[in-house]
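Quick one, tokens below. Sequence please?
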């Protein structure tokens, strides 16, 4: 097991990563649950519950806890005001005290919703993240961002609320559908692109075996990603600066997802992968980054099965103007200027608002 500390002073916590960590959850949780936290609400979804709840419950019971499952339907629709209200009601009905601990057991949706509920319940109770998807293990479970979606857009209502512990069992990833696993990989690769060329080179050689189930390779990929995320979150917990680097590929990616109505045509990770290619192409066109690096990014993503060009999206091609319109409304835009994460090369990303719309339009129209 690898332990990655997130050194946030009084909000510090550890991320425990490795094959089989689920079975150690009870013992690990003992170290962070308050003295009176015997009853542990476990918020999960029906898919995760069917596959993995018995193993978690056994481990918690062996450690003397009483797990109380709250099982939600799978899918993004639970990141909503109505499910938030229901969840808060359920937690209050279980008489969770201020010193209690709520467990989020699932992917990004469960983590974001549960973290938000914990953040506002009785003005904040502790919560634990047990992420079960690759995306949530390397990104959303770490760093304390929590949110629900609204009719005005995704993740627009939420709080920063750091978990007390993160337990990422890489064995659990074996039950993920292949498309979901690959989608999560976009967020792994993002770390190499934004700040670590050696990690990207390692991924060029090892990503296929990691995704095919090589335990050591996937554990290394998750641990290294978490280490990089922890480092960024410690530098900039509330995204006043460097944390925005984690949005590499997301300005383009969100525009694609929005234009496609968040449909099955493109998952979040697939949109981020395409967005990373676009960010590197834009960087190359603006003379910021060697063309060879942009080609290397695209070749790697294509080699492991991602679509890398807008033209490869089946059905109606998202238009350049429409995509630009979504980018102008991105929640990261400020003073009417869009925020881009561009790069001076692989591993050398930076945040800028200094991009002309005409350059973005030309790129999107020709991709
Ligand atoms: N997922 C981006 C962040 O945590 O800042």
């Amino acid at each position: 097991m690898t332990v990655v500390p997130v050194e946030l002073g009084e909000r510090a916590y550890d991320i425990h990563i490795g094959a089989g960590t689920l079975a150690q959850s009870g013992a690990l949780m003992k170290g962070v649950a308050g003295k009176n936290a015997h009853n542990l609400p476990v918020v999960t979804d029906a898919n995760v519950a069917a596959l993995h709840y018995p193993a978690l419950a056994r481990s918690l019971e062996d450690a003397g806890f009483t797990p109380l499952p709250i099982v939600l339907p799978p899918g993004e629709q639970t990141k909503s005001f109505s499910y938030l209200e229901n969840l808060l009601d359920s937690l209050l009905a279980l008489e969770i005290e201020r010193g209690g601990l709520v467990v989020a057991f699932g992917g990004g949706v469960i983590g974001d919703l549960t973290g938000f509920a914990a953040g506002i319940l009785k003005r904040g109770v502790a919560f634990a993240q047990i992420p079960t998807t690759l995306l949530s293990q390397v990104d959303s479970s770490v760093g304390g961002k929590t949110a629900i979606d609204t009719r005005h857009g995704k993740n627009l209502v939420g709080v920063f609320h750091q978990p007390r512990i993160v337990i990422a069992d890489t064995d659990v990833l074996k039950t993920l559908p292949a498309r979901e696993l690959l989608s999560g990989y976009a967020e792994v690769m993002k770390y190499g692109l934004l700040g670590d060329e050696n990690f990207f080179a390692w991924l060029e050689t090892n990503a296929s075996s990691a995704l095919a189930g090589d335990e050591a390779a996937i554990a290394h990929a998750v641990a290294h990603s978490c280490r990089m995320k922890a480092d960024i979150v410690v530098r900039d917990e509330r995204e006043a600066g460097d944390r925005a680097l984690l949005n590499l590929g997301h300005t383009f990616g969100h525009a694609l997802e929005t234009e496609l109505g968040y449909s099955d045509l493109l998952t979040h990770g697939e949109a981020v992968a395409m967005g990373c290619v676009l960010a590197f192409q834009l960087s190359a066109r603006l003379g910021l980054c060697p063309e060879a690096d942009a080609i290397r990014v695209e070749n790697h993503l294509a080699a492991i099965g991602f679509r890398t060009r807008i033209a490869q999206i089946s059905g109606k091609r998202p238009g350049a103007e429409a995509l630009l319109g979504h980018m102008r409304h991105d929640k990261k835009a400020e003073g009417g200027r869009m925020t881009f994460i561009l790069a001076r090369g692989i591993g050398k990303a930076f945040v800028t608002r200094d991009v002309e719309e005409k350059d973005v339009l030309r790129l999107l129209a020709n991709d």
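The chain is about 45% helix and 15% strand. The first strand starts at residue 2 and ends at 6.
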